[in-house]
Amino acid sequence: MAEDKNETHYFLDGNPDELERLRLGQEVIKNCMGKLVFPPIDFNQPSLRLLDSATADGVWLQNVRNSVPSPTRETHKFIGTDITDTYFPHPQPEGITLTEQSMTQPWPKEWASSFDLVHQRMALPAAGKEVVHDVLGAFVDLVKPGGWIQLVEPDHSVSMGPAMADFFRLLSDVFKFMGTGVDYAPQLKKWLGELGIVDLEEKIFDVPIGKTSGSEEMATKSARMIELVIKGLTGVAASIPTSFSPEELQSLSARIQEEVNATGGIFRLHCVWGRKPLTVRA
Asked: Which of 180, 53, 210 is nearest to 122 (CA)?
């Protein structure tokens, strides 16, 4: 666990179930979004450089790399960073480099303007309100002229049933304690535009949970994913001030499982991508 409560996107650091949650999350989100990379990048070009910030176990990078035909993919550089190496596979996956790096700390100078794609998903709240714009600016600095940035963040203001609404309320309580915001997702496009990113596009996905999923397999996996999130989140929430009573925290997981299995649920994701201009505006 990082020393600063704003410094890590893992309020579940050290949770033995977290690796399973990460893997399930990748499957569920990929199934809903349909693809992993939205910018029009030609992966048949040789020698591309991709950065996945807050990479966790690097599964997003592994999936992207596996989608590129050989031998071209062997010419690309796939780099994943995270504030902790807790979930880095050992040995590291073939063709992928994973290294410790916080998004809130200075990046290696030699990485400046070097990446064809900078990607991060569901981690920006680790950057508190006071530094989030600096973090985004640093991401843009990592992109080479003509390269792309893609960010994916959840919108906690949208839910289907009362139990999932309480889940998002609890998540907001935890984010408030961390000194971070719950409203980053709807502002991503505007913020990147203010940093000079052009050709901006946005897609919004309502990721189905439980019964609303398109298959029995995804229903089971998505319900299990939420179960693991709640298990870790309520454990953290029990030790900090929230708007929930101990009894409400204790019953929340069962309520959510009953709801998503009976009627389903959703969580909304904003996917925003854009291009760094070839020349800086005067």
From this structure: 53
Tell me the CA distances in angstroms from 257 to 36, 208, 223, 253, 267, one per residue in order.
Answer: 28, 14, 7, 6, 15
**H helix or E strand, kind and range, residue 167:** helix 162-178
Cα–Cα dist 279/282, whole Å: 9
For residues 98 and 123, give the distance between their C-alpha atoms in angstroms, rounded to a whole number: 17
Note the pLDDT tens digit of each residue in 108-131: 999 999 999 999 999 999 888 889
Residue 38 in contact with residue 201, Cβ under 8 Å? yes
Using CB atoms within 10 A of its CB, is residue 72 exposed (0-12), middle (13-18) or buried (19+)? middle
CA 109, chain centre distance (Å): 24
Encoded tokens for 162 = 């009362």
- Compute the distance between CA of residue 51 and CA of residue 259 in angstroms, rounded to an integer: 37
36: CB partners within 8 A, 6+ apart: 30, 60, 63, 64, 67
Rounded Cα distance between 168 and 267, Å, is 9
Q: Which amino acid, one-letter code, is at 73?
A: R
Q: Exposure string (b/e) for 233-256, b if CB count within 10 Å is 16 or more? A: bbebbeeeebebeeeebeebbebb
Distance CA 260, CA 251 (A): 15
Contact 68, 117 (CB under 8 A): no
CB 193 within 8 A of CB 200: yes
pTM: 0.93
**pLDDT (tens digit per residue) in 45-102:** 999 999 999 999 999 999 999 999 999 999 999 999 999 999 999 999 999 999 999 9
Backbone angles phi, psi at 137, to 5 degrees: -60, -40
